[in-house]
Design goal:
This protein has 477 residues and is of the alpha/beta class. 47% of the residues lie in helices and 13% in strands. A five-stranded parallel beta sheet has the order 7-8-11-6-12, sandwiched between helices. The two termini are 24 Å apart. The C terminus is likely disordered.
Length: 477
Amino acid sequence: AILKKFIENKVVYLAGDGDSAGKKFNAALLELIANANIPTKAIYSIEFPEGKDANDLLTEGSLSNFKSLRKKQFPLYNFNKIITSKEYKEEFPIHIFTKSLQGLILELNRTSNYPKNYAAASILAAASSAIGKTVQVKVMNNWFEQAVIYLVLSGRAGINKSHPLTFALKPILKYDEIQKREYDLEYEKYEVVIDLNAKEKKEMGIETLTEPVLKQILVNDITPESLQVVHSKNPRGLGLYRDEILGWLNSFDRYSNSGELQQWLSLWSGTDVRSNRAGRKAIYLNRPYVSVFGTIQNARLEDFAKGNLVATGFTDRILFTFSENNFKPYMTEAELSDNYIHYYDQLINKLLHLPLEYNEQQQAQPRILSFSNTAKQKLLEWNKYNADLSNAHTTTESQRSIYAKLDSYIARFTLILQMLYWADGEADLVEIKPEIVEKAIELTEFYRKNALYASSLINGNTQTNSQNDPKFMARLL
């Protein structure tokens, strides 16, 4: 308790003497901080010259040499520690949303028993799909991020995983239904005209005949080839929604010859697609946009360890979201107010109806949002922190792979939050302020913890938390 009082949220230097006893002292302190899970900004051990300590340097008048002494950094244990299934109690930081969205999430929890974590994450999924390629965020020169996310709601059966996702996507499903009705009407007219001869078409004033195109955003069970075709007709972007995400994973085996896993790795990164298949028109997708979301039971998370999903870093691209509780809720008689439903419909529809702009060559030209100077500094500070954490001696290779994806996700979260605030009338389409970056940082750290927890489940809790092993800590020091 005394140690926590002095070091919590501070930079800590372990300054044992420059001998074997001092190293043991440092190791003991490090173990204590790790086991107590005391949050700190950073932890270093100082390597004093053999047989010297801070007091020696002071009496010798050479304390200025302190700055040149080698300092070994260690990770922040509350992030690198492997979380077991019994310890998971993380709550989605819903305060990152606008007040109105926070109210909606709380009401969905109160009236419909939707876990707050699931409801909040589902809103991220819906926003990602609705935004599409209309906007991008400029991180650095030649580094632009889209709002693409791969998100999975994971938990026990019967704790309301599917319903929050269905609710969040309902405005988009309605939008697709309207587009389908319009397409059907246009296709009926097309079928009537297509069988006419040239003379009849001329008499009707028809010079050219174009087959109608179905505009849509959400797709479900779709082959890799069909996905490319549908996306080419819907350049605004797509969302793949699979209630049971295992169907998506299993398709990797079903279409093993098509390189589907590699395709989804590329789609997450927004890598251009150039497809030339026999018997089909060549397809070129410039910075494709496909988000993915669905649900899975915790017991089936090990499926994410099959094949090359872990080795290729595919699993590290998934935003796993767990419920803040694991109990099947009772039914309630409470009803969600129509005002909230109307509000949410308007919010998502504002995103849906933001037009995708084109340049003179008729190529999609997204709006580009930039960071204010202060916002950029906050992003750079977090990036340095993430790099230090990744480079720490006690960080495993699997953890480094997870942390590497967060560099992209924090920018994507920033973009999604900016657009949600814009849709709620609280932000513009020009500059990202520091407050939005701060909220994106909170969201990123939430998903860092979730990724570590998911990793422990995917690997069957076989990972050992060597950071809590005193002998291992002593070897590090």
